[in-house]
């Protein structure tokens, strides 16, 4: 086998097939959430990956008026709403990237 054939064989071994879950979820990559306006219940989807574990997670209530990121001059009611969400879901948020609460906290709150 010549050098050229060896290089082609090595290149074929290095290329990996793209995970079909990424295409099915229509996301840019692992741990990259996107909105799902057509879904009846959940507002976002992400294909979470930690080490070798991969999991498709749908999260967030469709149509919910969440607090979003803190804004200058934000009302006290919105601050309390955000704090309540984080306190209520703290245990699940702490589980990390493989939990819906983590992604809801990161993206929506």
Tally of DSSP helical segments: 5
Number of strands: 3
Ranges with pLDDT <50 over ≥5 residues?
Answer: none
Structural class: alpha+beta
Mean pLDDT: 88
- Side by side, the strands of the main sheet go 1-2-3
Q: Sheet bearing the most strands, described? A: 3 strands, antiparallel
Q: Termini distance?
A: 58 Å
Helix percent reads 25-40%
Categorize the overall geometry: elongated
Radius of gyration: 20 Å
Strand fraction: 15-25%
One letter per element, helices H and strands E, the order comes to: HHEEEHHH
Can you characterise this structure?
The protein is an alpha+beta fold and 109 residues long. Helices cover 39% and strands 18% of the residues. Strands 1-2-3 form a three-stranded antiparallel β-sheet. The model has no long low-confidence stretch (mean pLDDT 88).
